[in-house]
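Meet our chain:
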Amino acid sequence: MQDDYIRRILGSSVYDAAIETPLEKMGPLSDKLGRAVYLKREDLQPVFSFKLRGAYNKLASLSADERARGVICASAGNHAQGVAYSATRMGVRSVIVMPTTTPSIKVEAVKRLGGEAVIHGDAFDDARLHALKLCEDENLVFVHPYDDPDVIAGQATIGVEILRQHPSGIAAVYVPIGGGGLAAGVAAFTKFLRPEIKVIGVEPNDAASMKAAIAAGRPVPLNEVGIFADGVAVKQAGEETFKLCQQHLDDIVTVSTDEICAAIKDIFDHTRAIAEPAGAVSLAGLRKHAGTLTGPGAAIAIHSGANINFDRLRHVAERAEIGERAEAILAVTIPERPGAYRAFIQLMGPRAITEFNYRFAPGTNAQIFVGVKLSGGDAEVRTIITELEAHGHRVLDLTDNELAKLHIRYMVGGRVGGLENELLYRFEFPERPGALLRFLEGLRSDWNISLFHYRNHGSDYGRVLAGIQVPPRERAMFEAYLDELGYPHWDESDNPAYRMFLAASD
């Protein structure tokens, strides 16, 4: 199977549409990690993503009769633009089915590139099923985003370029994984030509479908998929890509949202380019994993794409310093008396306070939500906590608490008295008309909404925090309603940040 793929890769037709992208050294990060770090700049492709390679190679492999029929795909992102661009270059009709949640910037990009955008369904699976139906009804050729040998071979040309551009020592290549087409192709070619080079797959820790597949020995669906890095938010790895990744990948590293945001910042600081979250996933994995590499050689990350909505940058900027471990978020109990705040700041010494949230509450103690600038990472956080506790303060480290970072920091001071049976849930609502109404209509009239906080950062989903009063005997019924609703959700009722800042007071 590997020999067949090598022939496909070396015979692939991508350069009629794609360009050979540069391999750029990241000086500051190289100095920081003590190893040469390079970035493969796939954001410089005509559609700002590597997906063009696989799409064009697939279309180039079609017969004249197949091209005359036209092609179709289901995609809300970079694959859609790659197929539309490639088809237009070849004079082939392209139909792109996109769910209603697709941001308008991506729909307009597909139209501008010559594709016929068909908007259908509330989620990607709805769009995929509709695309398959149109494929049959109109006798079109389906172009899979990753689980196709010609698509895999086209993506693998990135690996060919890396090995030619950096013929000297390479310790590891870090590759983002969604469905696995890029990782499968790059790993297959790299291991054929330079088996000593480690090929490390990188996935978001809330969308690690390939890691789950390798652990299970077969592709398995994830129950929930986080979609911050929407370009790699795939619920189940492909069959073909799984076989290749299982055989050729050395390891898979998972990264958090904050670590991805820190990598986006690194890319901007060095290149002044802005990566989409999926585009920075591999660099986030490199930052996290490169310290474990043994022996000499460069570490290389693939910057896979730059199709990001501008208003998502607020969220990225907010979380990047936490991802770099350059900021800590703490909840601290101080005395509720004049001068306590000044005494607390004096304890913090010369450290910069990045955020301070407080509201008066009756009692002898006050709860404050504070952000602190760091220069010494996790070790400095431990030092700060030790110093505060030595002076009698209770401290809770919220730096990795998703509820605190998404919602609590904006709601400090919301404690109320006499509130019974409150459950707290965090949701991802699809960003479309009627999503909130559907949620509300399914609630029983005696399940009172006691808290509601909504945030969106230019994504195709909104982050919602809801408090709902549900009697204990009805909680199984409530859980059944949430499962039927189908929105991703997390029970945060026991989250310590909620207990400290928002839960009902006695």
